Amino acid sequence: MTDQHEGFDPVIIGFTCNWCSYRAADLAGMARIKYPPNVRLIRLMCSGRLDPTFALQALAGGADGVLITGCHPGECHYLEQNYKAMRRFQLLRRTLQQMGVEPERVRLVWASAAEGQQLADAIAEMVEEVRVLGPLSWRGQGNGGKLLRPEAEEAAEVGA
Amino acid sequence: MIDHANAPGPDGAAKERIGVYVCHCGSNIAGTVDVAEVREWAEQRLAPDGVVVARDYKFMCSSLGQELIEKDIKEQGLTRVVVAACSPHLHEQTFRTACQRANLNPYLCELASIREQVSWVHSDKDAATAKSKAVLCGAVQRVAHNEPLEPLRVPIHPATLVVGGGIAGIQAALELADAGHPVYLVERQPSIGGHMAQFDKTFPTLDCSACILTPRMVSVGTHPHITLLTWSEVEKVDGYVGNFTATIRKKARFINTDLCTGCGICQEKCPKRVIDKEYEAGLGYRKAVYTPFPQAVPKYPVIDEPNCTYFIKGKCKACEKFCPTDAIDFNQEDELVTIEVGNIVLATGYDLFDARRVSQYGHGRLANVFTSLEFERMTNASGPTNGKIVLRDGRTTPTSVGIIHCVGSRDRNYNNYCSSICCMQSLKFAHLVKERAGATVYNFYIDMRTTQKDYDEFYQKVLEEGTLFIRGKVAEVTDAARQPGEEGKLIIQAEDTLAGKQRRIPVDMVILSAALEPRHDAKAVGKTFGISCSVNGFFIEKHPKLDPVATMTEGVFIAGCASGPKDIPATVSQGAAAAARVLGRISQGEIELEPVRATIEEAKCSGCRICNDLCPFNAITFIEERMVTEINPALCQGCGTCVAACPAGAISGSGFSNEQILSQIDGLLMLNVEHAAAPAGV
């Protein structure tokens, strides 16, 4: 914790895939491996399901960081969809940078179902890194937490 | 206040009536999380979101806990259920079934994992309680958007495609065919039999491989329910569980199998001798027209096009001249066959590690260094030396033999895994060398792994026979003599870890127990069938312990060495197990699939085709006439990659819709409970 952000406790939204990283989180639990309580996980079927909007929505809604996790490259249960997640992750980081948000707030971690310890370590590391970055406080600017959806809806309105 | 689907309507009541159940799990959760506080908080703060009942209970998964939920559904008219308990991988099915019993669609139930993700991984009670509220809040927000789903039912075609005619494929095919169902057995080589057909003796009983295998091969060849397609490969697989369409390339044999009697005169008369790199492992010869071995099934030979004199020079046709039934047909072409099957068993086996890669062991450079497969052929009574153990010159019997275990396996330079069969195979070699050549035998091993039935007894027997065991990794095999007695010998330089010293042992012959590796084209084959390979290249099973012959692709099963190195008993068991799984499907007649699927709203689809290349299961097709994309629900595996990619928002994923996930995000951030007392960074 830096002096600058004293008392700051980050909130991180984590996305997991049903087959590897969610099971890694389960394993961390079963093995009673401790990690900071700052992360809250969402289960997707695959990291390929991760619409970058989800990450932006989380950051806009008050999260200080977003953790994206999935099966290791080559081990995706849907063959190769984690590669698509990898591509989107790179684009997402670039987009965030252009928006003036530190790209380190979004992190991609591969964790197999056997890697409970590695996932816990990655979470702990990320929490500390985001703690140093300080609060994002995107929320409250613009239209508070609804930064993206109205636009997305508008875009969807535009004829097919 | 953030808007959500479950906002109170004009009458002030939320649309959905949600029940929240917080489990103590004995002290597993209650020890770290203030369960009563979480329940009370949900009851008060989540009431505007539709929570009408919130209860906590010692063990929600017990029958009493489940009854609590069922009773509330019936009496309180709940339309959604959230259970804050353990991981959904443990009890999602339990609570879904409970809901179903109370006539609530099972997919309207959500689990919030506050055990694996909270109480077991955090120690601070306040922080854990606060996080439990957030996790629960996320689930409540999400469940309001859950939709009732029905499992997909698809009929199962009774025929099965078995790929690979080794012992695993043979076993699977016979089990299925004996049960009365049609089987297509596809084999790449001219004959079925696989690696087992190359062996002489099988450990630990030392019964003759051909004696136990060939009757099975004959049964396959004559079985009324088995269609045997050898010298064939599967090119393409379309469809989904229950309804696959496979396109198989029958390579040209240049033999009319309707006329051929398998008399073998063509092989006798063919003037072209070719080194047999497949069946004889390079130790022997075959002709350009050949059956790999005399007991081959089917009995029809093939003409080896790249080596046949007629195909090279345009003349010869000796086989045609002498064939008594005019069965030779030089104009034959590849044929594509399309078959319909309900299930697929992949039993594609293994490739032997190329021992030349371990250059310090000298295979390919030092004449008397043999691989395990070469030695198998040498000991085989019908092999190139008629079962005599001799050096590469074909005459000299060795007086000392070194057998090196773990060549290419348990070695971080090549493969980390244990090849499982090498210890027993090397012990078998030691016994055969002793028995037939009377030579001194040295076995160089890392660890001795003799774990199956009667294996260790075999090891004891080989020990008693006087084979010498040196525990340590071999550094080098060389022909450079340094000491008297080493001239003209192969010297094995090894560390003896038990004696704690380096040793140089001169021998006449070295046998390398090479690793079992994935097929060189396993990845491409996996792609054809829609299954994946693990880091080491073998096919991944659905679950390594509890579902070892199923894959993540419904209707595609794996057996034998295709999923990892195995001995013959394990391979046979897997062949039978895969058949049992298929038989279960066939006797059910239809199968229920998880309704987690992507669907396209046609009116929204712009026909941009961005999603078209994203699906590895070929579930997405573009309809040219209407300029829109369609998703085949039975092919879709529900990963959701296309949902995330659709720029028009036309694709939605049932069970994991945008609304569900976005609401869960809002819920986890507690945007719906403004100004909540919030420790831990809320």
Keywords:
heterodimer; A: 160 residues; alpha/beta; 4 strands; 40% helix; B: 682 residues; Rossmann fold; Alpha-Beta Plaits; FAD/NAD(P)-binding domain; five-stranded parallel β-sheet; 23% strand; disordered C terminus
Give an account of the 3D structure.
The complex is a heterodimer of chains A (160) and B (682). Chain A is α/β, with parallel strands linked by helices and 160 residues long. Helices cover 40% and strands 14% of the residues of chain A. Chain A has helices at residues 21-30, 52-60, 81-98, 116-133, 149-157; strands spanning 12-17, 39-44, 65-70, 106-110. Chain A has a 4-stranded parallel β-sheet, sandwiched between helices. In chain A, helix 1 (21-30) links the parallel strand 1 (12-17) and strand 2 (39-44). In chain A, helix 1 (21-30) packs across helix 4 (116-133). Chain A is globular. The model of chain A is unreliable at 142-149 (pLDDT under 50). Chain B starts with 17 loop residues before the first strand and ends in a 14-residue tail after the last helix. Among the domains of chain B are: 18-149, Rossmann fold (3-Layer(aba) Sandwich), CATH 3.40.50.960; 252-333, Alpha-Beta Plaits (2-Layer Sandwich); 350-517, FAD/NAD(P)-binding domain (3-Layer(bba) Sandwich), CATH 3.50.50; 594-653, Alpha-Beta Plaits, CATH 3.30.70. In chain B, helix 12 packs parallel to helix 13 (455-464). With 682 residues, chain B is α/β, with parallel strands linked by helices. Chain B has a 5-stranded parallel β-sheet, with helices on one face. Chain B has a 5-stranded parallel β-sheet with strand order 20-27-21-22-23. The chains are: A alpha/beta (160), B alpha/beta (682). At the A-B interface, helix 1, strand 2, helix 2, helix 3 and helix 5 of A face helix 4, helix 5, helix 16 and helix 17 of B.
